[in-house]
Protein backbone atom coordinates (compact mmCIF):
# COMPACT_ATOMS: atom_id res chain seq x y z
CA UNK A 1 0.00 0.00 0.00
CA UNK A 2 1.34 3.40 -0.97
CA UNK A 3 1.57 6.03 1.72
CA UNK A 4 0.96 9.47 0.29
CA UNK A 5 2.94 12.44 1.47
CA UNK A 6 1.11 15.61 2.49
CA UNK A 7 2.36 17.37 -0.64
CA UNK A 8 0.94 14.57 -2.82
CA UNK A 9 -2.41 14.78 -1.05
CA UNK A 10 -2.47 18.56 -1.45
CA UNK A 11 -1.55 18.18 -5.11
CA UNK A 12 -4.42 15.72 -5.67
CA UNK A 13 -6.87 17.96 -3.81
CA UNK A 14 -5.66 21.00 -5.75
CA UNK A 15 -6.03 19.15 -9.05
CA UNK A 16 -9.56 18.01 -8.17
CA UNK A 17 -10.47 21.55 -7.09
CA UNK A 18 -9.16 22.99 -10.35
CA UNK A 19 -11.17 20.48 -12.37
CA UNK A 20 -14.29 21.30 -10.35
CA UNK A 21 -13.78 25.05 -10.79
CA UNK A 22 -13.21 24.60 -14.53
CA UNK A 23 -16.37 22.52 -14.96
CA UNK A 24 -18.33 24.95 -12.79
CA UNK A 25 -17.03 27.84 -14.88
CA UNK A 26 -18.02 26.10 -18.11
CA UNK A 27 -21.49 25.42 -16.68
CA UNK A 28 -21.83 29.06 -15.58
CA UNK A 29 -20.76 30.39 -18.98
CA UNK A 30 -23.15 28.01 -20.75
CA UNK A 31 -26.01 29.08 -18.48
CA UNK A 32 -25.24 32.79 -18.99
CA UNK A 33 -25.12 32.26 -22.77
CA UNK A 34 -28.47 30.46 -22.70
CA UNK A 35 -30.10 33.17 -20.59
CA UNK A 36 -28.67 36.00 -22.68
CA UNK A 37 -29.69 34.33 -25.95
CA UNK A 38 -33.23 33.84 -24.61
CA UNK A 39 -33.31 37.50 -23.57
CA UNK A 40 -32.06 38.54 -27.01
CA UNK A 41 -34.70 36.40 -28.73
CA UNK A 42 -37.42 37.86 -26.51
CA UNK A 43 -36.18 41.36 -27.30
CA UNK A 44 -36.37 40.66 -31.03
CA UNK A 45 -39.85 39.13 -30.66
CA UNK A 46 -41.13 42.10 -28.67
CA UNK A 47 -39.56 44.53 -31.15
CA UNK A 48 -41.16 42.71 -34.06
CA UNK A 49 -44.51 42.63 -32.27
CA UNK A 50 -44.19 46.36 -31.53
CA UNK A 51 -43.36 47.09 -35.17
CA UNK A 52 -46.28 44.96 -36.35
CA UNK A 53 -48.60 46.75 -33.93
CA UNK A 54 -47.43 50.14 -35.22
CA UNK A 55 -47.97 49.00 -38.81
CA UNK A 56 -51.48 47.84 -37.93
CA UNK A 57 -52.28 51.23 -36.42
CA UNK A 58 -51.09 53.10 -39.51
Features:
about 60 residues, mainly alpha
How do the strands and helices of this protein lay out in sequence?
Layout: H1 6-57
Question: How is this structure best described in words?
Answer:
The chain is mainly α. Helices cover 90% and strands 0% of the residues. It has 1 helix and no strands. The chain has one helix spanning 6-57. The radius of gyration is 25 Å and the shape is rod-shaped. The termini are far apart. The model has no long low-confidence stretch (mean pLDDT 82).
Distance between the termini: 84 Å
Report the count of strand segments: 0
Tell me the number of helical segments per DSSP (H or I, 4 or more residues long). 1
Task: Please give the largest β-sheet.
Answer: none
Proportion of residues in helical segments: over 70%
Radius of gyration: 25 Å
Question: Averaging pLDDT over every residue, what do you get?
Answer: 82
Backbone structural class: mainly alpha
Q: List the quaternary state of the chains.
A: single chain
Uncertain runs with pLDDT below 50, 5 residues or more? none
Tertiary shape: rod-shaped
Order of helices and strands: H
Our estimate of the beta-strand percent is: under 5%
What's the gist of this structure?
By secondary structure, the protein is mainly alpha-helical. Helices cover 90% and strands 0% of the residues.
Amino acid sequence: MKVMMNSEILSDVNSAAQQYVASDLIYSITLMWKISSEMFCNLIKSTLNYDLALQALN
